[in-house]
Amino acid sequence: MSAHFVISARPVSLTPPKDGIAWPSLWLRRLRNRRALASLDPDQIREVGLDPFVIRDEILKPLWRP
User: Helices 23-38 and 52-60, interaxial angle, to 10°?
Assistant: First the structure.
């Protein structure tokens, strides 16, 4: 059984966010949110009505991707 990975060709914007948040604090917030999602067990994910596949995709994103 082989694993297939899709790499997104979506460009990464290097302009600062419009809301005035600095990049390091924005990335730190994303890191914390993604770690919190990663700590949820399957029952908790189902309880709040989230799709486990969407959660997995969000957790695997690099910090600079929204």
Answer: 140
Q: Are 52 and 42 in contact (CB under 8 A)?
A: yes
Report the predicted TM-score, pTM, of the whole model to 2 decimal places: 0.63
DSSP letter string over 7-62?
---PPPP-SPPTT---HHHHHHHHHHHHHHHHT--HHHHHHTT--HHHHHHHHHS-
pLDDT digits 0-9 by tens, 13-65: 556 566 666 888 888 999 999 999 999 998 999 998 989 999 999 999 998 88
What is the residue whose two structure tokens read 């990049």?
A: 23
Tokens of 57: 């995709």
